[in-house]
Request: fold
Amino acid sequence: MDLQDRLTSGDSRALARFLTLAENNDPEAARIIKELYSRTGNAYVIGVTGPPGAGKSTLTDKLTKKLRQKGKTVGIIAVDPTSPFTGGALLGDRIRMQDLFTDPGVFIRSMGTRGHLGGLSRATQSAVKAMDIFGKDFIFIETVGVGQSEVDIVKTADTVVMVMVPGLGDDIQAIKAGIMEIGDVFAINKSDRDGADKTKIELEMMLDFSEKKDWRPPIHNVVATTDAGVEELLECIFKHRDYLMDSGEFKKRRYRNTREELINLVKERVLELILKDTGREYNIDDLVSRVLSKQIDIYSAAEEVLGKISG
Ligand SMILES: Nc1nc2c(ncn2[C@@H]2O[C@H](COP(=O)(O)OP(=O)(O)OP(=O)(O)O)[C@@H](O)[C@H]2O)c(=O)[nH]1
Ligand SMILES: [Mg+2]
Reply:
């Protein structure tokens, strides 16, 4: 059987193999997705993000166990386990999610920041598609909520769970612009620590001041390590899903994401074509030097590059 058949027949080694191809931007991964595209779009994608060490993996582990109890299958994509903030997280995740590694209904994959950033987001999107084709009911994408690329990745989820911890104080102020708009559900994890109620009040106040939308993100106190509040958090996620479905917002989100993905693919492909065209690498660095030394202006430089495909 070839990889494609093994993937659709539920062979998890085939899924692992496929994800490696996707990560390496191997054309075989794109070919398989092309063939099986009609099977995508069924899994519900949950983004889990928040500051380093907030308990995202522990919470994902607990949410996954609840979904398994309900008979659902789960895929987990942990993005960026090699970031400087989270050194060794991969090993940590193995410990935090160890029961899940032996559960055939769960597939866990870590994706590193290898290559450049556009590549990571494409690889993540391919991974979501592969797990979806594979038949997973729910897919988690865990990313550290630091940096635009991580935010872009998690924005492709259907429901984004923002994990906060007590005592963030000024940090909340600093990151609020980015987080307030992408969080659909807020979890204040480590609520066994002091200041959990205060953090909740602060977050509620911030929501009061932010732009009013039809869906007001619920804020939930949880303790991932003891499972306290996790069932209620999962209910909040389901409520958000119902809201998306009933309001038509689900279709709008998927439209927005597909549009963005399409544009990015085209952009990436065009750039690739230009830079690799006719077998000789286009020397973009040379052009940059010429712009800097004012031998050419930047608009003409861009036209020169584009001229390679249009003319
Ligand atoms: N006290 C307390 N500790 C927790 C709780 N949840 C997680 N932790 C601990 O916090 C640490 C980090 O947990 P992780 O689940 O790895 O956090 P993370 O957000 O995935 O971390 P990175 O992926 O490295 O950013 C671990 O030592 C956990 O045991 C909680 O609710 N209360
Ligand atoms: Mg983690």
